[in-house]
Amino acid sequence: RKEVEQDPGPFNVPEGATVAFNCTYSNSASQSFFWYRQDCRKEPKLLMSVYSSGNEDGRFTAQLNRASQYISLLIRDSKLSDSATYLCVVIRPYNNNDMRFGAGTRLTVKP
Amino acid sequence: SAVISQKPSRDICQRGTSLTIQCQVDSQVTMMFWYRQQPGQSLTLIATANQGSEATYESGFVIDKFPISRPNLTFSTLTVSNMSPEDSSIYLCSVGGNEQYFGPGTRLTVT
After folding, report:
1. Please, are residues B32 and B49 in contact by the beta-carbon 8 Å criterion?
2. Would you call A43 and B43 a contact, using CB atoms and an 8 Å cutoff?
3. Residue B23 has pLDDT above 80, yes or no
């Protein structure tokens, strides 16, 4: 089993739609979780962190369910500019510098 | 945040040769990281480079194949040695703690 697993995607949605991605992690001792965004042929960039009960940033909401060991990302009112690959990232326990990336979920928002 | 540059941005190399990738950061950092992103896949950590000590390699990566230098707190190099087509990938360096900042990547094609 992979350490971090994501919805396989791709997701193709119309503008204005709400879309949700899930990510599961295998190490129950993991403490820190993130969503990164990677545009085509670009480097990954931090989208948002997910701490304790989750957080919200504008149209984006990240949730953490420790009991089930999954993280979700909800995007409301999708924009064309949201088209990208979304990477779930988990920090291994006891080593803040050891990040494990999911394979990513590709989102395409269409007009 | 940190601004990171990489050289070269891309290269096409013949099998059996070696390529050295440079990573420059605009501020002093203790740890630098080297990742590989193979086509259509997510990021895999190759090694962690600390200034003044040997790099720490992840499982599946060895120093003879991917020697790393870290001569000071703003610079690192990764060499891909004795290349084969399977080494064709994007190589990225990064810095940071929980929030990682990535360089733009080096796109390597081995023929």
Report:
1. yes
2. no
3. yes
- pLDDT band (50, 70, 90) for residue A96: low
Contact status, residue B91 vs residue B36, Cβ threshold 8 Å: yes
Q: Are A76 and B15 in contact (CB under 8 A)?
A: no
State the nearest Cα–Cα gap between B42 and chain A, in angstroms. Answer: 4
Residues in A 5-44 with any Cβ partner in B closer than 8 A: 32, 34, 42-44
User: Distance between CA B19 and CA B25 in Å, rounded?
Assistant: 20
Task: Report pLDDT for B60.
Answer: 93
By Cβ distance, the residue of A91, A97, A103 closest to B41 is A103
β-sheet with B4-7: strand ranges across: B4-7, B19-25, B75-80, B68-72
Residue in B105, B40, B35 with CA at minimum distance from that of residue A99:
B35
Q: What is the pLDDT of residue B3?
A: 92
Q: How far apart are CA A19 and CA A79, in angstroms?
A: 11
Q: What DSSP assignment string belongs to A8-42?
A: ---EEEETT--EEEEEEES-TT--EEEEEEE-TTS
Q: Do A44 and B104 touch (CB under 8 A)?
A: no
* Residues written for chain A: 111
- Which of A36, A51, A94, A97 is the best mutation test for B, with the most CBs of B within 10 A? A97
Q: Which residues contact A3 (CB under 8 A, 6 or more apart)?
A: A25, A26, A27, A90, A100
Query: Distance (Å, rounded) from C-alpha B20 to C-alpha A111?
Result: 43
